[in-house]
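job 3f2a | input accepted
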Amino acid sequence: MIDKKKFWQFQKITIAIVGILLLLLGMRVVFARFFTDSSGTAVGDIAFYIIHPTTESQTLKMFDVKPDGKDYIFNIDVSNFKDDNVSEVDLEYTLELETTTNIPVDYKIYLNDATVNDFQNKEIIQDEDGMYFFKFSTPKQRFEKEKEMTNHYQLIVNFPTNYNEEVYQDLIDHVEVTITATQV
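job 3f2a | predicted structure (184 res):
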């Protein structure tokens, strides 16, 4: 005959082990869903898909830019198609870069492997809160309707070595890239 006391102890231990295994398996799924790993290189990629007249913005992650005099390259692609959708109207767009004035960083942008800096002007603007920003813009570009086109920009960010001082140690430069597309 089965000893009921030993049977219930065995059942409790079995349920506890199964519960722990389920908990561990569940944690693995949770970690897999929310865990991200990056290599730490200061190169970033941004893609804009402008199928209709619109304004879109994305923020660049500038955490790895250091005052070492090296060029940090951020790739920005602007396309008039996504998946099977292609713009049905001619579009004209401008790319604008808006940065805080916290850090003395140099910005250059090149379109489709050109050797000429495409930033036409550098404005200093002030928002309603009194904060100052640098605003750069590129010449207008045009996409033809129903023809898949992509423009590839390379944004070069350089933080000169002569600014390797404690004053700049904890400052972060907020950089926002904006595409404004209009129908032609």
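job 3f2a | Helices lie at 4-34.
job 3f2a | closed
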